[in-house]
Amino acid sequence: MSVRLPRTFPLPTVALEDAVANQFRLMECVARHFEGRQLFEADAGVVPGLGRPRTTARVETVLAEFLGAPAAALVQGAGTGAIRAALGAVLDAGDPLLVHRAPVYRTTGVTLRGLGVETVEADFNDRAALDRALASGRFRWAFVQHSRQRVADSHDPGEVLAACRAAGVRTIVDDNYAVFRVPRCGVELGADASCFSLFKLHGPEGVGLVVGARDLVGRVHDANYSGGGQVQGHQALDALRALSHVPVMWSVQSRVGTEIAERLAAGEVPGVAEVRIANVQDRCLLVRLDRPVARAVPDAAARYGAAPYPVGANSRYEIAPLFYRMSRSALEDAPELADWTVRINPMRAGADLVIDILRRALHDLRDVDGNGRPAAAAPVRARGLVPTPVSDAASSSTPRPVHSAHGSRDQQEGG
């Protein structure tokens, strides 16, 4: 069977020097709106006149200023809640909404169905098709996902937003997986609103942000008057503290991903046939193997310290490199890739560790067939599909040399 990865068009990244400058600029915004003691204090509840905690409102002001927007609203429900709040603020049931002709992120699909809007597709990769849709005069609003929806998406989100703006169509951008990773997020590119999860930016669980036009953000606040729906002050401060190190962390992660891709493409790991950098959903590596054992790789890699599934895609819980399957939406165009391709995100790890884990995982799977089962003659250990080594060195009391990123674990687990 001939399986190939499609050509990908990764979104631009932020250079380390620029990320450091962004971190410093964020702290300048913080200093303009917080006195020192206020960073250690937080209130709660529906404060009269504000409708939310004072600390929360202050953090919103900081984030709006940092992203160059008039206003911001912290909301519960993480990225999905932010998208739901923004779309619900401007659309009624039956309203037409222009979207990209591509699989919609599953939770976004639930939101769109719940709102009862009429989604109308146009291929954003085809500028002529986009222009025809915009010229129809049907749309007041368009919804743009910044990260790629299809593996082979090639459009420039900034150009899509500019075309919408020129046609008088307002825009809401799903900036999950993109904000702080690309030079400019949707609202910085001229969108009316950006929506994203702060949980994906090392913040507390369940906190999202809508940032953009004052009228839209005002409606979000008006609809969220309930005390139980507020992002409380301590949550807002927690999210702000986390953001202070995110720009540099994401820049380093992007740089590590590029190094891994270059080394894999150079043939450093046997069993790797092809590699692509792609923004599906987060910026990651798509690694096509020379055998259809991709479904078994996450568990094999987990034995050597990799995370076999995500928590929030770069949440505070995720420090180990992620070895995972391709997303369902990414597989819609090429379902055959499921058996051949693994998705890798280095998270906080360096290239050496990621490559070492991949090499070891593929070595352990050398006697596994395409269905993830061991070959009949291959003995297995209780903990994995690893043939038990039999050698004089293995029974010797003298420890063997260690030459990997795992150090003494080689001796403890037999490699």
Automatic annotation (TrEMBL):
Residues 372-387 have a biased composition (Low complexity). Residues 368-415 are annotated as: Disordered. Residues 259-358 form the YhfS-like C-terminal domain. Residues 156-228 form the Aminotransferase class V domain. SUPFAM superfamilies: PLP-dependent transferases. It comes from the Bacteria. It holds the Pfam family Aminotran_5. This is Aminotransferase class V domain-containing protein. It comes from Streptomyces rimosus subsp. rimosus.
